[in-house]
Amino acid sequence: MPVNASRRSALKTLALLGSACAASLLLPGCWKKEEQGATGLAGAPAVVKGVGDPVVEFKYPDNPAFDLVYLAEALGYFEGSRTRPKYVGKIAAPQIIPLVGTGEIDFGTRMVPLVISAIASGLDIKVVSAGGKTLQEAPHMKYFAHRESGIRTPKDLEGKTVGFNSFGACAEFVTKKYLRAQGVDVNRINWLVVPDNQAEQTLATRNIDVAIIHPPHSGGAEQNPALVKLWSDYDLDGGLGGMAPYSVYGRFAREHPEATRDLVSAIARAANWVNANPDEARRITSKRIGMELRLVERFAYVENLVVSEPPIQYYIDILEAEGKIPSGKVRVRDVYTNEFNPFASPEALA
Questions:
Q1: What is the pLDDT of residues 97-129, one digit of tens each?
Q2: For the chain, domain boundaries
Q3: Burial (CB count <10 Å: 0-12, 13-18, 19+), residue 157
Q4: In whole angstroms, what is the distance from residue 258 CA to residue 261 CA?
Q5: What is the rounded CA–CA span in Å between residue 327 and residue 284?
Q6: Mean pLDDT across the stretch 28-49?
Q7: Which fold does the domain 5-133+242-349 belong to in CATH?
Q8: Domain 142-237: CATH class, spelled out
Q9: In angstroms, what CA-CA distances link 251 with 28, 68, 137, 273?
Q10: Is residue 44 over pLDDT 60?
Q11: Is the pTM of this model over 0.85?
Q12: How many Å apart are CA 71 and CA 55, to the nearest integer?
């Protein structure tokens, strides 16, 4: 997929710095309208003619994950709507938010700090739907060590290598915040990016000392007798950092507000269905990604996927404290909107 020079520069900035100084985004209702005749530019979705209204295709990763877009499609929640997913192949986790922010894909789901950093760097992106949430029985991520490593306490991580799925997201910031509170020198830890679907094996072969793994892939580590679970993110912050939202390319939302509402409605319905039918959702995910059912861990989702502000402010505070964004650069309301969610209350829309 071609990326022009300006987009390549933006992606490089995010990859190297995690965030940069630039103007924050306006609320969607105030987004500037693009000039007419721009439909041939990258980021404009394909429109397929069919019976009735045109169907808008949104570009989306085809990743081996427990994902509401895939579940909504399997459940038929896009039927009768004006939008459908157009899968564009596998995309590495660290690339998803930069690619949404430049329009190479139209929607993506990654953690809040990545979206905040993208907004701070000037990318055109907005959170439009809450996603996963952390419960004690269904955490967002789990921490594992090799059973024979002797690692059992936070202080034991000093001098060790910790594998996690990307810099700039929950695994980095939630972990560092917790470890510092436990008196751990996080600068004495070697942080290594290891994809979730490779983390169990990398830890079992002792190429890393600790692995931070998200569902559904944490299920294999949970049942691997060579490994021991240390903590979950629920143990670290009570779940405050566990919201994994869905974000949209700003231009897509401006040009296709009805399709954006259709998508948010479909995944919100799917989220509520998953909460009510966790085992059936696991079966669908198992079949889709080719993982043995007993190893697929469940997800829990925010009710109706309505975005709330505390999880966003939590990460703004962390990013400011870490020096990743200037103080006051990004406000909570720069990051999200519930205007596309048909289940949002008037208070959530205010």
A1: 999 999 999 999 999 999 999 999 999 999 999
A2: 5-133+242-349, 142-237
A3: buried
A4: 5
A5: 43
A6: 33
A7: D-Maltodextrin-Binding Protein; domain 2 (3.40.190)
A8: alpha beta
A9: 10, 22, 38, 30
A10: no
A11: no
A12: 19
